[in-house]
Specification:
single chain, 235 residues, alpha/beta, D-Maltodextrin-Binding Protein, domain 2, 2 domains, five-stranded mixed β-sheet, globular
């Protein structure tokens, strides 16, 4: 959202689906890596997302390592194959509730650490983005959607098995057992009310500015609004 704002796009975040980081540093216990300091000279697979280079720089700095002390390989969406094949010793960019769960289901004993536990400021990993102009012109559909999402979230938390059944019915390619494991890992992470933490966004925006990811430092109110969530008084 902040990068979009920096590019001049007419968008704003109106609710959090997951209000904490999912992106994690992941390695397997058999790799011999016991902490960030052990990544010196190792190969780290990344998804090739530019801001994650800043994640890695921040993470390594806590162990007095520089980005040059590790080798990175951009594998796009191939994070799991990179780890499983031994192409990489660790990955940065996998989600704790997806790749982390998948590796655990395979019996690979992954070590999964969300980036906010490694020095990156916390943030809302998954948010809903709206066109600001359309939102201001006709906010009611957005309010209705957010209210429906809140009801759906509550129903999913109440009935995980039904949630899995619905997902598998919608996509025959899903493995029911793995899907259940991913659902069980995801449900506790869902934001029950969609609320976004403006001070937290301010800290993250400052971090982005320090890492030269953005050309200006917007106020949180410029990139997010909680005003359309259920129970909020219309502005």
């Amino acid at each position: 959202m902040v990068l979009a704002d920096d590019k001049g796009l007419d968008v704003i975040a109106i609710g959090a689906i997951v209000n904490r980081p999912l992106t994690s540093m992941i390695w397997l216990k058999k790799s011999g890596v016991k902490g960030i300091a052990d990544l010196r000279g190792k190969t780290i697979a990344t998804a090739g997302i530019p801001y994650q280079d800043a994640y890695l720089k921040t993470i390594l700095a806590r162990a007095n390592l520089s980005p040059e002390s590790v080798k990175t390989v951009n594998v796009g969406f191939g994070l799991l194959p990179a780890i499983l094949s031994g192409q990489a010793d660790a990955m940065l960019g996998g989600f704790r509730n997806v790749e982390g769960v998948d590796l655990q289901a395979r019996g690979k004993d992954p070590v999964v650490t969300p980036v906010d536990q490694l020095g990156v400021p916390t943030y809302d990993e998954l948010v809903l983005a709206a066109n600001r102009t359309q939102l201001e012109e006709d906010p009611e559909p957005y309010r209705l959607f957010l209210a429906a999402l809140a009801r759906g979230t509550a129903a999913a938390v109440k009935s995980p098995a039904a949630t899995v059944d619905a997902l598998v019915a919608a996509n025959n390619d899903l493995d029911p057992k793995l899907t259940r494991a991913e659902v069980d890992a995801t449900l506790p992470l869902l934001s029950p009310d969609g609320q976004m933490n403006a001070p937290g966004w301010a800290d993250f925006i400052a971090w982005m500015s320090e890492n030269e990811l953005i050309s200006s430092q917007p106020a949180p109110s410029q990139v997010l609004s909680n005003a359309y969530l259920p129970g909020k008084i219309p502005e």
